[in-house]
Write a structure and sequence with these properties.
The protein has helices at 4-18, 23-30, 34-46, 93-106, 120-133, 146-158, 186-199, 214-229, 250-264, 274-286, 319-335, and strands spanning 20-22, 51-53, 56-58, 81-86, 110-115, 137-140, 163-166, 180-184, 205-209, 239-241, 268-272, 296-300, 313-316, 344-347, 350-352. The chain has 369 residues and is α/β, with parallel strands linked by helices. A six-stranded parallel β-sheet has the order 5-4-6-7-8-14, sandwiched between helices. A six-stranded mixed β-sheet has the order 10-9-11-12-13-15, with helices on both faces. The chain is elongated and about 75 Å long.
Length: 369
């Protein structure tokens, strides 16, 4: 039996010669099991040497020939049914969905929405259901962690309809996965919050979050990296997880966080998200602390931050704009599936300064996305 490296060389040679090769033909030609062939093909695809398609393997995407006549965003002929799969229709996602829906409607299309609950198997089931409905392109926020997440991304990359990733990027293990993507620079958004607090004199800034998500992870990294770059303290003693505002036991948990912040000398909080920041301000007042006098607070999301008392300084992701751009990108890919280069767009969030940090209130000058 040939070594794995020898089999992979034979697979590459066959693909170079024929362009596209069926997996069944490779099984017969190499005299090994289908499992072995799929494993070899997966390794080659992850290295960017081949591209997996349904039932076969082909040459990888190499980019288009220049076409200066093409508009930045094309429009497909006829009404398009656009599928969208998101992990939840709560918290972060409604504004993203609304942005996508507006862009699709403006192109005389229709959006078909499904939710999948942060589960790769459910992601795949919902995508398959939309394919059965006849969608012509897909917007997907898939699970990208674990082996199951990698397999899901490989499968999405093999589909015959265009797929645009929303708030997700392929991990380093899949460096050449040829999927368009639109993301928010959440880590940079955390940096905006920390730098604003530093300009106001704060040196010990705690990070508080209530639920795990890819956004939370990016914010934690931004808090840590920015604190390190500014020679601040960003240690585990200043990182807290709390129950959602209003859930069972929330008040006692928030009181504990505030006391621990006082003990650690923290004078400012960066909180994900608005509702938890509002709860912390409420408990701080009941404990005799003033905001911003004793404690400055910045929230991340800016959905209801302006309604806090005092109004919260907040970092605002451009959610509607992100959803609209993802939809426009998907429609453009559908209109020009071969000549259009892969696009990876990243939107910066914005900082809206209000009263909760003691800085100038510029909320009246900010504009919604």
């Amino acid at each position: 039996m040939a070594l794995a490296s020898e089999r992979q060389e034979l697979i590459l040679a066959a693909v170079r010669k024929q362009g596209t090769v069926r997996l069944a033909d490779l099984v017969e030609r190499l005299g090994v099991t289908a499992v072995t062939v799929r494993r070899d093909v997966t390794l080659l695809a992850d290295r960017g040497l081949v591209h997996r398609v349904h039932g076969g393997v082909t040459l990888p995407y190499r980019g288009p020939q220049p076409d200066h006549r093409a508009a930045p965003f094309g429009r497909p002929q006829g009404q398009a049914l656009v599928g969208m799969v998101v992990p939840t229709v709560e918290f972060y996602w409604p504004a993203v969905i609304q942005g996508a829906q507006s862009a699709v409607a403006a192109a005389d299309g229709r959006l078909a929405l499904r939710a999948s609950a942060y589960d790769p198997q459910e992601d795949r089931r919902q995508v398959a259901a939309l394919l059965d409905r006849g969608v012509r392109t897909l917007l997907v926020a898939p699970t990208t962690t674990s082996d199951a997440g990698l397999d899901l991304l490989r499968w999405l990359g093999s589909l015959t309809v265009p797929v645009v990733l929303v708030e997700r990027l392929p991990p380093p293990a899949l460096p050449t996965l040829a999927l368009d993507a639109v993301t928010t620079a959440h880590s940079l958004g955390a940096g905006l919050a920390i730098r604003h607090l530093v300009t106001l004199g704060h040196r010990r800034i705690a990070f508080v979050t209530a639920r795990f998500s890819p956004t939370t992870q990016a914010l934690r990294e931004g808090w840590q990296e920015t604190s390190a770059s500014l020679s601040l303290t960003a240690c585990d003693s200043l990182r807290f997880e709390v129950p959602p505002y209003g859930s069972a036991g929330w008040a006692d948990a928030y009181d504990t966080v505030l006391r621990r912040c006082q003990e650690a000398g923290a004078t400012a909080l960066f909180v994900h998200s608005d509702s938890e920041a509002i709860g912390l301000v409420e408990r701080a007042r009941d404990l005799g602390l003033t905001v911003p006098g004793d404690l400055a607070v910045v929230s991340y999301d800016d959905e209801v931050a302006a309604a806090s008392d005092p109004p919260l300084t907040a970092v605002r992701p451009q959610k509607r704009r992100l959803g609209a751009l993802a939809a426009e990108m998907a429609l453009a890919r559908m209109a020009d599936p071969t000549e259009r280069p892969i696009h990876r767009l990243q939107l910066w969030p914005t900082l809206v300064v209000r009263a909760s940090c003691g800085g100038e209130d510029r909320a009246a000058h900010s504009t919604d996305a």
